[in-house]
Design goal:
Number of strands: 17
Number of helices: 13
Function: Catalyzes the reversible cyclization of carbamoyl aspartate to dihydroorotate.
Strand order of the largest sheet: 3-2-1-4
Organism: Gemella morbillorum
EC number: 3.5.2.3
Family: Belongs to the metallo-dependent hydrolases superfamily. DHOase family. Class I DHOase subfamily.
Oligomer: single chain
Pathway: Pyrimidine metabolism; UMP biosynthesis via de novo pathway; (S)-dihydroorotate from bicarbonate: step 3/3
Strand content: 15-25%
Helix content: 25-40%
Bound molecules: (4S)-2,6-dioxohexahydropyrimidine-4-carboxylic acid
Shape: globular
Length: 426
């Protein structure tokens, strides 16, 4: 048994002091001043305790791309960021499009992950958009179906997949990108791409496919979840689809909330991600979408790449930045400390709203619930230093930024998944 004394938890939006008693994988008691004779007692000295975060969008790269990242490092990076559940995307080699391929990934997760990881199954074989993945073989082991990294171009393939997913009671989680509208772009098509004289990806490349898909989801009766929405039109389409009673949900990434195209200082591939940083207006629409409930959850799109793939110009670099280790702190610093939204809302967007969106039994601190939690020092600050990342990926454009609200201890099913050894000796 482990007793956490003097932590502060959120109750109806207010921080209250509580002790938490953990037995093996579960929380057995949350109360004021628990007096129990247990082997281990840890004084949290008033630090904030949140349910462990859930990240429905990570690239853990294994099997297939271990030179960028692997499950050992990615899971430790996630735990350091306060995540206790993560859903790795299927753009792997082999792609988990049948049980045999998926089993390779499941076995490595079992061996190497320090947190709960529930992988996606692909929608199409090899994510090539031509033949269907083996949905029935995968269904018992996967979180949902996605071809993330690519849009499903063929409307009928998407429609049929949605009908099967609906029958299997799984969500279709879509990376929305109409290939005919990419136009060779490497950043958002807007003011900054014109200034830098670089080819741009127009906003419609994303929003047009979301508009198609919400109508397909309506016809198929499927839970349709949109990955990383980045444009104001996407937010509008989702808002209107929700109002029409369509089962659509969506996520936004920290970088799309924090930055926009005008923050890109020069032609530097470290700022390249897909979808790209959009306009200030788009960014404001994303924040408004979070506040009015159109956007359901925050997910990182943690996308590690090797240095030789990112230390390049915008045209040549790979799409993607890492996010697991800094997501909460960056959002806390940018939005909670400045009063744009509350700590309560930020935490919900990373915990219970994710659980409610996908029907997961995690994301809450409650008696009999899993002891998945993160202790955060809201006063502590640090400067982002990629050399200190636990991830193999060093690709962040936010080097040197000062962030507050630093996770110092993460427990996953009662086990220490991350600790700051300078703070806790456990
Ligand atoms: O920036 C991105 N990186 N966007 C994606 O959709 C894929 C991801 C990756 O796998 O690197």
């Amino acid at each position: 048994m482990l007793l956490l004394k003097n932590g502060k938890i959120l109750k109806n939006g207010v921080l209250v002091s509580k002790d938490i008693l953990i037995d093996d994988k579960k929380i057995v008691k949350i109360d004021k001043n628990i007096q129990e004779n247990v082997e281990k007692v840890l004084d949290l000295e008033g630090k904030f305790v949140s349910p462990g975060f859930i990240d429905v969008h990570v690239h853990w790269r294994e099997p297939g791309f271990e030179y960028k990242e692997n499950i050992y490092h990615a899971s430790r990076a996630a735990a350091r960021g306060g995540f206790t559940t993560a859903m790795p995307m299927p753009n792997l080699d082999p792609v988990p499009d049948n049980y045999e391929n998926l089993k390779i990934q499941l076995d490595i997760i079992e061996r190497d992950s320090v947190i709960r990881a529930i992988p996606y199954g692909a929608i199409t074989k090899g994510e090539l958009g031509k033949d269907y993945a083996e949905f029935e073989e995968l269904v018992d082991y996967v979180f949902a179906f996605s071809d993330d990294g690519r849009g499903v171009q063929d409307a009928n393939m998407m429609y049929e997949s949605m009908m099967v997913a609906a029958k299997l009671n799984k969500a279709i989680v879509a990376h929305c990108e109409d290939n005919s509208l990419i136009r060779g772009g490497c950043m958002h098509c807007g003011r900054r791409s014109r200034e830098l004289d670089l080819p741009g990806i127009p906003s419609v490349c994303e929003s047009v496919q979301i508009a198609r898909d919400v109508l397909l989801a309506e016809a198929a009766g499927c839970h349709y979840h949109v990955c990383h929405v980045s444009t104001k039109e996407s937010v509008r389409v989702v808002r209107e689809a929700k109002a029409a009673g369509i089962k659509v949900t969506c996520e936004v990434c920290p970088h799309h909330l924090i930055s926009d195209e005008m923050d890109i200082p020069e032609d530097n591939g470290m700022w390249k991600m897909n979808p790209p940083l959009r306009s200030r207006e788009d960014r404001n629409a994303l924040i408004a979408g979070l506040l009015d409930g159109t956007i359901d959850v925050i997910a990182t799109d943690h996308a590690p790449h090797a240095t030789h793939e990112k230390d390049l110009t915008m045209r040549k670099a790979a799409f993607g930045i890492v996010g697991s280790e800094t997501a909460f702190s960056q959002l806390y610093t940018k939005f909670v400390k400045t009063g744009v939204f509350s700590l309560d809302l930020l935490v919900k967007l990373m915990t219970e709203k994710v659980a409610d969106t996908f029907g997961l039994p995690y994301g809450r601190l409650e008696e009999n619930g899993y002891a998945d939690l993160v202790v955060i020092d809201l006063e502590k600050s640090l400067k982002i230093d990629p050399e200190k990342f636990l991830s193999k990926g060093r690709n962040t454009p936010y080097v040197g930024e000062e962030i507050y609200g630093i996770p110092v201890l993460t427990l996953s099913e009662g086990k220490v998944a991350y600790k700051d050894s300078e703070v806790f000796d456990i």
